[in-house]
Write a structure and sequence with these properties.
Distance between the termini: 51 Å
Number of strands: 5
CATH topology of the largest domain: Ubiquitin-like (UB roll)
Shape: globular
Structural class: alpha+beta
Number of helices: 5
Largest sheet: 5 strands, mixed
CATH architecture of the largest domain: Roll
Strand order of the largest sheet: 2-1-5-3-4
CATH class of the largest domain: Alpha Beta
Length: 156
Amino acid sequence: MTTNIHITTKINNQPYEFLAPSYMSLLDALREIVGLTGTKEGCLDGNCGACTVNIDGRIVDSCLVLAAEIDGCDVQTVEGLATSEGLHPLQKAFLEEAALQCGICTPGFLVAAKGLLDNEPNPSEHRIRHWLAGNLCRCTGYDKIVKAVQKAASES
C-alpha cells in the first residue's frame, strides 16, 4: 500500500501544497504534480546534474531527494530565474555566448551557476569549473558555459 505524504512548501517563491507518494522523488513531483517541467530528467542517479534545484540555499540533484523532504522548505527551480522584467542575467549570457545546444543540461547548469553567483559574485574560472563539476554536458562543451557564467558575473 502506498502512503501519500502531505507537503507544504514554497517553490520559486510561490506557496504549494500537495500530496505525493512516499517513494516519489522531488524531480518527479516537480514535473508530474506541480507541473514545472524545466527541471530535466537525465541519469536518475545523481551523476549528470540535469535535475539540479536549490533547496534552502543548497544545490542538489532532485532525482536523489524525496518529495517528502521538501516539506517546509524553499525550493528554487530554473523556472524561478526569469522575472516579469525579463530573463535572468545568466539566461541572457547563456544565449549570447551560445552556451547551450540540446538544452537537457541547461536548466541544471543555470541553477548551479546561480547558486555559485549568489555565494560568490565574482568567481574565478577555476572556481566556476569546480562548482559546475557536478553538471555534465554532452553537446556544447564547457568553455562556452564557463564564459557565460563569467559574463553574467561581470554584468551583475
